[in-house]
Amino acid sequence: MKLKEKISWLMGRVQRSLFPHLNECLDTRLTELEQRLVTILEVVQVEKYVPKRAATQWRGRKPLDRQAIARAFVAKAMCRIPATSDLRRALLATINLRRICGFIALEDIPSESTFSRAFTEFAASELRKRAHDALGKDYLGG
Question: Burial letters for 68-94: b for 16+ Cβ neighbours within 10 Å, e otherwise?
Answer without folding.
Answer: bbbbbbbbbeeeebeebeebbebbeee
